[in-house]
Structures are given as C-alpha cells and as structure tokens.
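worker-3 :: picked VOC domain-containing protein
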Amino acid sequence: MKQQPAPNAPSICPYLFYRDPAKGFAFLLEAFGLEKRTVHEVDGQVLNAQAGLGPYTVFVGQARTERKLQPASELPAVHAGVMMVVDDVDAHYRRAHQAGAVIEYEPRDMPYGLREYGARDLEGNLWFFASHLTS
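worker-3 :: tokens ->
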C-alpha cells in the first residue's frame, strides 16, 4: 500500500524524541499552544504524533536507545532547536511559563527583526518563539 504524505506537513519539519511521547505531546499542546493533528498508537502506546501551529508541523516520537534515538535531556549538549513564529510572542511566553516550560530567556527584541524568547520542553528540547517586529 502506498503511503500518503502526512496531512498539513511541510516538506521539512522537526522530529523530536521523548521517553514518554504521550506526555511530551500533551505538554506541547498545553504549554506551547500547538494543535493536535494526528496520533498513532499501538497497544495504547503513542508511537508518533503530529502537532502544528499554522503551517508548521512537529513530529513527536518514541526515544529508543537501541536505535540511538535519545531525548534532548540525555544528550551532553543541545544539537538543534525548533523556531516557530507566533502572532503574539509575549502572550505565548506567559502561557508557556505558566504551564511549566523552562525559560531560557524572556521575550526581547533582537537585532534581526524578531521579538523572541527561548524555552525548553519537558525533555529538554530547545524552542524559540518569535514575532516579527514592525517598523
């Protein structure tokens, strides 16, 4: 059977690994305001899921040591981050902070035309959220 492309998924999108994908996915929905797109389960376990915000999609999957797929919290250093543009970065920051996201830095105007903040999710993945500054 031929596989169809994931609905609403762009050609390139991050795929993050969690020890507990269900818990990580729920956190992304609550803290970062992502929208549930799809969840694939086998025997009650989340194998992978998709969440999004506008045209953006993030895949969430199971960390599996035997396949060398580790959550960010188990790595010695950050290897990548996820950048998402939102309508109101200050409101987004407040939501994430209240939901327990670890804030790396609070919203601030950047010299490259964005107002952004940095946060980590439950498993240590680094996220950047930004709004475009208007002149």
